[in-house]
C-alpha cells in the first residue's frame, strides 16, 4: 500500500463548527460593545480570509469609526475563543459523516494520522474531547495548529510541518480539506486533496483537487460528488485514498468544482 498518512483539516472538515465560530464572534462583539454583527452571508465572505484575528483586522480597517490596535484585536479574539469553547461544550455537535469510520480504518491499517489547521490547539483539544472523549495526542501522530505556524493557509507551511513531523513524503499522503485556502495550502505542499464541502464552502474554487464531495459517505449512505468525478464506491475509505495516491495524475482535475 502506497498510502501511509492522512492529514485532516479541522473546522468544517472533521466537524461542522463554522456556525459556532460565527456565533462566538458575534457574542464577543457584544461583550466588547462593538456595533458589529456577522450574518451568515457576511461570514461566508470572511471565510475566504484565513484566521480569526485576520478577519477582525479587516473589519476594523473597513470601519473607520473604530480605532483599535493589535492588542485590542488580540483581546477580542481571546474573548471569541473562550466563547467558542463554551458554546462548543454546550452544543450537540458531532463528527461529520464518515470521519470516525475513516479514522478507525486508518488505525487498523497502520496509516498515520495528522492534523493541519488554522485553529488553535486549545480549540481542537476541546472539540476532540467533546465529540470523541479522547486526548487528540492519543489519536493523531502530529497536530499542527495556529499556535505553531507563522503563515496560515493558503500558505503550505502547516502541511509542510505536518509532513515533516510524520516523516512522510507528500507522495504517500492525502489531505482532507473543506475550503479553497485549505486546498491551495495542501496542493502547494505537494499533497493530493479530497474536499468535503458544507454550507459555507459549497461554492468555493477547488481547482486541482482529486475529489470534491459533500461528505466522506458510508457504504449504506453514499456521498454526492462533482459531476466531473465518477466514483462507483460512493464512500471514502483507505482503498480509495490509496488509489488517489497511486494514480494522482489521472485523478487530478484542472477546473472549478462545486457541488450543486
Lay out the secondary structure.
Elements: E1 5-8, H1 18-31, H2 40-46, H3 52-62, H4 70-89, H5 99-108, E2 112-116, H6 121-131, E3 142-144, H7 157-166, E4 173-177, H8 180-188, E5 193-196, E6 211-213, H9 238-246, H10 248-251
Parallel strand pairs: 1-2, 1-4, 2-3, 4-5, 5-6
Summarize the structure.
The protein is α/β, with parallel strands linked by helices.
Structural write-up:
The chain is of the alpha/beta class. It has helices at residues 18-31, 40-46, 52-62, 70-89, 99-108, 121-131, 157-166, 180-188, 238-246, 248-251, and strands spanning 5-8, 112-116, 142-144, 173-177, 193-196, 211-213. It folds into two domains: 5-16 and 94-251, HAD superfamily/HAD-like (Rossmann fold, 3-Layer(aba) Sandwich), CATH 3.40.50; 18-89, Putative phosphatase, domain 2 (DNA polymerase, domain 1, Orthogonal Bundle), CATH 1.10.150.240. 40% of the residues lie in helices and 9% in strands. The protein has a six-stranded parallel β-sheet. Helix 1 packs across helix 4 and helix 4 runs parallel beside helix 6. The longest helix is centred in the N-terminal third of the chain and has 20 residues, at 70-89. The radius of gyration is 18 Å and the shape is globular. The relative contact order is 0.16. Residues 251-260 have low confidence and may be disordered.
Name the descriptors:
260 residues; alpha/beta; Rossmann fold; DNA polymerase, domain 1; six-stranded parallel beta sheet; 6 strands; disordered C terminus
